[in-house]
Specification:
By secondary structure, this protein is an alpha/beta fold. The protein has one domain: Tetrahydropterin Synthase, Chain A (2-Layer Sandwich), CATH 3.30.479.10. A six-stranded mixed β-sheet has the order 4-3-1-2-5-6, with helices on both faces. The structure holds zinc ion.
């Protein structure tokens, strides 16, 4: 049995910092992140596609643009949250540290919940560093 896969690339910008981290990532800073959304299947639809690229873009880019793009992604226990909220800064609060791994998982779970049967999410946090998340 063969297997088909498609991948859609989505760019977005975000800021973050890591709690309890002994390095420069403990300070507020930002990334031009590049997201890769992968979908695979054993069979194609009637049009000969895994899924229309436009459909991935609409769902995935739509959610990312609305919730993560140009926002500060922070651990919900980060003490700086209160200060940034007072200054009306756009935030997205996470259960754990906003690492590329946890952001990948967040996006994976969110897109699956929105009905996109993705097989893997990869987040290039820098041009040379990428985290990936997948589930069965
Ligand atoms: Zn960073």
């Amino acid at each position: 049995m063969g297997n088909y896969a498609v991948k859609k690339v989505i760019d977005f910008c975000y800021g973050h910092r890591l709690l309890d981290y002994d390095g420069k990532c403990r300070y507020l800073h930002g990334h031009n992140g590049q997201l890769e959304i992968e979908i695979d299947t054993g069979t194609l639809d009637a049009l000969g596609m895994v899924i229309d690229f436009g459909e991935i873009r609409e769902i995935a880019k739509g959610w990312v643009d609305e919730h993560l793009d140009h926002k500060m992604l922070l651990h919900r226990d980060d003490p700086i949250v209160k200060v940034l909220q007072e200054w009306d800064q756009p935030l997205y609060l996470m259960e754990g540290n906003p690492t590329a791994e946890n952001i990948s998982k967040l996006i994976f779970r969110q897109l699956r919940a929105m009905g996109l049967h993705i097989s893997r999410v990869s987040l290039w946090e820098t041009p040379t560093g990428c985290a990936m998340y997948s589930e069965d």
